[in-house]
Design brief:
566 residues, alpha+beta, 2 domains, six-stranded antiparallel sheet, five-stranded antiparallel sheet, 16 helices, 14% strand, flat
Length: 566
């Protein structure tokens, strides 16, 4: 028996099962993580029913007045009775656990907070009135209540007889005026961000040009006249757009609606403040699906609002992808050139081995160290010199002497270049010596052999290094906090203004967005589901970038495999 057991261990079979079990556990953990992110993140966009109930604490509790709540259920948990009695609420101490529910009350402008924990035992008279309307607003978060009346200016248009019951005609008039307000808001947004933004950009360009002429002593009456004429044209265009904006603001502020909130509170809300409105308790399954994808589309394509706890994250998606692409452009040639020199040209000896050890050790340096290096070397030294040489008219305001897309990409390229070097060297080492000798025997120079034979055959290994670099760089946050990422970027680093790609601008990043929303948000409960949703999106973005690189690597591998067969 012992001989069989010894032979079984020596055969390596236990290690095969051990490795298979480790792989299976890893796959289960990854799938579990993705399921958690999907359920907690994507479930946030589902339009849940809104409950009306009475919250009646015990009579000897300090806040003993029965309170009406209109809220959306978020989650529940069981808590020990000791935790309740420590807060001063009298309970039945023989009951070990109590259920408490997290309710999204909305109406932050009326109550001061839009989330509250309530004990389930004290919720009575629960119902789901069909007249409840859920509003998503540009400020103050969600609103839950009943629609009472519509106003056009000071004129009362229509008033509801029974606001707690769904009134289709009143709702139809409400949605028509909301669609009108949303259409006007889109026009205002386009004018402010595109047309006026372009004018402001050109005005600043003229100011810097005028300052440049002053510093270089090239100011002449002709240049002053040209600048003044162009500035007058821009001012005239700005005044026309501003007049158009004033008319649009007057139009969008015309309509308003009166709502009845919990506990009989009434409030008037302008249509200009509303982003979305729906009646959650009368929506069919298809209606809820439509609202769900509308919210999801907003999350993927719009800018954030309300301290990043609402709205979308498109600027963060754009910044992450653009930064990774720029990093790939920077890191690939540097890593490949370094690997080619170490493998093909450098004399193999103590110095070369020392360099390889140093490269391998660089891969283990904490990322924040690279961030400090990027801040000191790229921003303060190189960026400061660039400002002195090429942008003196903008000083003391920095242009490249502050964090931006360029320095963030270069810092991450420096962080990931050891990965590319090691992967490329391994690919070069796998190419048979006979291939090089055959090319040289046919009369090719060493450089031609390297350029036309060796590097194309090693390109799959280069792509492997790039894949590993992308996987590491896309999720980095610590160095980016020092070299260019911000909580909210007012504009994208790519726009229609020359030179179109603004590498000096700061940008948003999905990883930093997760950190900011999860740990710096003033509204933790509202931010929590967005952390899961953004984390899932970051995983998807990294996977998409890696899959694109893997597809290119496989294409190159098949291409040169076919060449080898011939």
């Amino acid at each position: 028996m012992m001989d069989k057991l010894t032979y079984w261990f020596r055969s390596g079979t236990p290690w095969i099962w051990f490795n298979a079990g480790a792989v299976a556990i890893s796959i289960i953990m990854v799938i579990g993580l993705l399921l958690l992110l999907t359920v907690r993140g994507m479930g946030h966009f589902w339009p849940s029913d809104v409950m009306r109930a009475t919250y009646s604490p015990p009579s000897d509790y300090t806040d003993d007045t029965a309170t009406e709540i209109i809220a959306e259920f978020v989650e529940s948990e069981m808590i020990p009775v000791v935790q309740i009695t420590s807060s001063g609420i009298p309970v039945d101490e023989e009951k070990p656990l109590y259920q408490r529910n997290l309710m999204k009350l909305g109406n932050r402008d009326l109550t001061g907070g839009d989330f509250s924990w309530v004990l389930d035992d004290y919720l009575t008279d629960r119902s789901y009135p069909t007249g409840i309307i859920a509003l998503e607003r540009r400020e103050w978060g969600n609103f839950y209540g009943y629609l009472l009346a519509l106003h056009e200016g000071e004129e009362l248009l229509v008033e509801s007889d029974n606001p707690k019951t769904a009134d289709d005609q009143l709702w139809e008039q409400f949605t028509q005026r909301l669609d009108r307000a949303l259409s006007i808001y889109d026009e205002i947004y386009a004018i402010e961000n595109d047309e006026i933004g372009a004018i402001n950009y050109n005005v600043e360009r003229l100011r810097l040009l005028e300052r440049r002429y002053e510093l270089s002593g090239q100011t002449t009456p002709e240049t002053e006249a040209e600048i003044a004429a162009e500035r007058a044209e821009l001012d005239q265009a700005y005044e026309a757009l501003q007049s158009q904006l004033n008319d649009l603001y007057t139009e969008i502020q015309r309509d308003s609606a009166v709502f009845l909130a919990a506990n009989g509170q009434q409030t008037e809300i302008e249509f200009a403040e509303i982003v979305r409105a729906y009646r959650p308790n009368v929506l069919s399954i298809f209606g809820k699906i439509a609202v769900y994808f509308d919210k999801l589309g907003e999350f993927l394509t719009e800018a954030p609002r309300e301290a990043n706890t609402e709205g979308g994250i498109f600027p963060a998606i754009f910044g992450t992808v653009l930064m990774v692409l720029l990093m790939s452009v920077f890191v690939t040639p540097f890593g490949v050139v370094a690997a080619v020199y170490l493998r093909e040209y450098a004399k193999q000896g103590l110095i070369t081995r020392t360099i390889r050890i140093a490269v391998n050790n660089l891969a283990g340096v904490p990322s924040i160290v690279y961030g400090v290096f990027g801040l000191g070397f790229f921003i303060y030294i190189i960026g400061g010199e660039i400002d002195q040489l090429f942008y003196p008219e903008a000083l003391p305001a920095p242009t490249f002497g502050t964090g931006g897309m360029l320095w963030a990409s270069l810092t991450l390229a420096l962080l990931t270049v050891p990965v590319v070097i090691v992967a490329t060297e391994e690919g070069l080492a796998r190419i048979p010596r006979s291939v090089r000798e055959g090319s040289l025997a046919l009369g090719a120079t060493k450089f031609e052999t390297l350029w036309r034979v060796v590097l194309p055959m090693a390109s799959p290994a280069m792509m492997t290094g790039l894949i590993l670099a992308v996987a590491r760089a896309a999720g980095e946050v610590a160095p980016l906090m020092l070299v260019g990422v911000v909580k909210l970027a007012p504009s994208l680093p790519l726009d229609g203004n020359y030179p179109y790609l603004h590498l000096d601008q700061k940008f948003m990043h999905l990883g930093f967005h997760i950190y900011d929303v999860g740990f710096q948000s003033p509204n933790v409960e509202a931010a929590r589901p967005l952390v899961f949703a953004t984390a899932l999106l970051l995983v998807i973005v990294i996977a998409a970038l890696n899959l694109a690189a893997v597809a290119l690597r496989n294409h190159l591998r098949e291409k040169f495999k076919a060449l080898d067969s011939h």
